[in-house]
Amino acid sequence: MRRSRTPRKPDPTFYRQHAGIRTRSACFVVSAYVTAPRQRSVIPFSSKELTVSPADEDVARRCRAGDVDAFEILYGRQAARIYTLACRMAGSLEDGEDLLQEIFLQAYRKIGTYKGDATIGTWLYRLALNHCLDYVRSRAARMKTLTDTLDGDHSYQPLARRETPDIRLDLERAIERLPDGCREAFVLHDIEGLDHKEVGKLLGVAEGTSKSQVFKARAKLRAFLRE
Fold first, then answer.
1. Which of 6, 9, 45, 149 maximizes the CB count within 10 A of its CB?
2. Would 83 be classed as within a structural domain?
3. Residues 34 and 114 both lie in one domain
């Protein structure tokens, strides 16, 4: 069964506190967390960018000028998609919510780097993807440190695995169970539609490694969904 969740609204003073805005702050709303595991939403990473519509161009211009109302429009158009990406990359809805706010705060601070050579949605998606990858890598480093610490503590006894045979895993929950490397490659290739060359470049691995990770992810998902 597919789950749906609406991320919490950022605090009304969010941008004023974190970005120094003295004008009226907007309270952003996301309609829903929409999951579409089999539908690929491709964002081009090559020179063939999407055409910038006048509406997008105007929103981008206003955002660069620090117009909070324009950021409200940008959030309304892009947040659901960015939230879906964040949840899938992080492997949890709660972390996805935190990443969503961090990404839009980062977007506000870096809006001056947007040059208009692609749609503002494409620019924001790239920023979100890089932020999510940084988060996953940082978490992996923290987990390695924790594992090394626990391995050296002979008094540590891991808890027995809790069997839950009655729980049927849907695809989203199964994706959450994938190891970080497999999940990143699977999300980027099978869900976001990037080819293995692009995935490898983003993850800093060989193209063959990307293919291997996706193959392993698919095998694990089939096993999870049979449980």
1. 45
2. yes
3. yes
Query: pLDDT class for 150, splitting at 50, 70, 90?
Result: very low
Q: How far is CA 96 from the centre of its chain?
A: 7
What is the amino acid identity at position 186?
Answer: F
Question: What CATH number should be reported for the domain holding residue 40?
Answer: 1.10.1740.10
CA 63, CA 79: separation in Å to the nearest integer? Answer: 15
pLDDT of residue 82: 93
Domain assignment of residue 224, given as a range:
170-227
Q: How far is CA 210 from the centre of its chain?
A: 18
The values of phi and psi at residue 53, to 5°, are: -80, 155
Does a structural domain hold residue 89? Answer: yes
Residue 78 belongs to some domain of the structure? yes
**Three-state SS sequence of the chain:** CCCCCCCCCCCCCHHHHHHCCCCCCCCCCCCCCCCCCCCCCCCCCCCCCCCCCHHHHHHHHHHHCCCHHHHHHHHHHHHHHHHHHHHHHHCCHHHHHHHHHHHHHHHHHHHHHCCCCCCHHHHHHHHHHHHHHHHHHHHHHHHHHHHHHHHCCCCCCCCCCCCCCCCCCCHHHHHHHCCHHHHHHHHHHHHCCCCHHHHHHHHCCCHHHHHHHHHHHHHHHHHHHHC
32 and 110 fall within a common domain? yes
* pLDDT for position 191: 81
pTM score of the predicted model? 0.56
Q: What is the pLDDT of residues 75-113, one digit of tens each?
A: 999 999 999 889 888 888 888 899 999 999 999 999 988
